[in-house]
What does this fold into?
Amino acid sequence: MKATTLTETKNQLSVPIDQVRHGGTILILDRGRPVARWSSVLADDATASDGRVARLERQGFLRRGTVSKSPDLFREPRPRPRKGTSILEALLEERRPRIIAG
It folds into this structure.
C-alpha cells in the first residue's frame, strides 16, 4: 500500500487514481496521520489480483513465466532431504548475509 499526503493528492489527483485503477491501494495522510484509504470499487477480487500482478511486474518485483508447466510436474515424487539435514537450516543459511573479504 502506498501512502501520500493530502497536499500531494490535491496537486496530482490523476497519479493516485491511476494507481488505484491498476489494483493499488492508497493511504491518504493529513499532517502525518492516516485519514483515508482508497481502493478500487470497480474491480472484483480477480481483477484486483491481476492489477497487483501487473503492478509488481512493472516495478520489477515479479517476472511471469514464459514456459508452460510440464504435465508430469506433480506426478514426480518430491525431493527428500538427506538424513541428518534440516530444511529450515538450509533455508536460513541461504538467507544469511555473506561477508566478502577483499
Q: What stands out?
A: The chain has a mean pLDDT of 82.
